Amino acid sequence: MSKPTAAERRYTLWLIENPCFACGIEDDTRVGHHFTFVKRAKSKKAKIDEQLCLCHFCHIEDLHRHGERTFWQKRGYTEEQLLYHGKQFYENYLNKGK
Ligand SMILES: [Zn+2]
Questions:
Q1: Which end of the chain is more exposed for a tag (fewer CB within 10 A), N or C?
Q2: Which distant-in-sequence residues (6+ apart) come within 8 Å of 39 by Cβ?
Q3: What end-to-end distance do the CA atoms of the chain give, in Å?
Q4: pTM (2 decimals)?
Q5: Structural domain harbouring 70
Q6: Is 32 helix (H, G, I), strand (E, B) or coil?
Q7: How many domains in the chain?
Q8: Could you tell me the distance, in angstroms and rounded to a whole number, from the CA of residue 59 to the centre of ligand 1?
Q9: Over the stretch 76-86, which tens digit does the pLDDT of each residue have?
Q10: pLDDT tens by residue, 24-73
């Protein structure tokens, strides 16, 4: 995976101020999780809005242990909905302060 740009890093820092998208916790272990279900060429990295905020537990203990598909299915999200939520967060970010 290529390194995030400065703009991507700034966005992720904003994103992880939001509660964990899966469990709602607001601890300091939150990271931006880039969706792995999006089909893209190997050389292409995830788009800036193809991520959601997850806490360490949801991200590592659950999502990466059981697989992304199972993780989201268990919570009733389709891939389309997740992409929509990712875009919504990014739009909110772009609109902040306006
Ligand atoms: Zn969580």
A1: C
A2: none
A3: 33
A4: 0.90
A5: 6-43+56-95
A6: strand
A7: 1
A8: 7
A9: 999 999 999 99
A10: 999 999 999 999 988 888 778 889 999 999 999 999 999 999 999 999 99
